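Researcher: Here's a chain I'd like modeled. Treat it as a single chain, no partners, no ligands.
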Amino acid sequence: MNSETVSNIEFATADSLLIVRLDGGGKPSYQHVYRAAAGVYWDNDFGAFKFDTKNDKRLVHWFAHVRQVIEDEMDVRLLLDSKTTWTNVPSQIQQEIQLSVS
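Model: Modeled as a single isolated chain. Structure tokens:
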């Protein structure tokens, strides 16, 4: 299994999108993640996976979903490190996501 480090996790509140940007910018083959029909898409321009959160604010749950889909479909494990940044994600949710990845 390959791994990718997450550079930024963003909750785009206006669009209810969870955006997971990758440190290395990702690979063109990530575009095929949509085939899982799990709502996760690759945006090559952003170097990020995107997921419509259905506006229910369950960010920890949805991050776990995105991470699992990417692992199952792309054979890629998403990792967080000390350089991972957070945009519009409350600190409590950040901590919960960090614990779920460790």
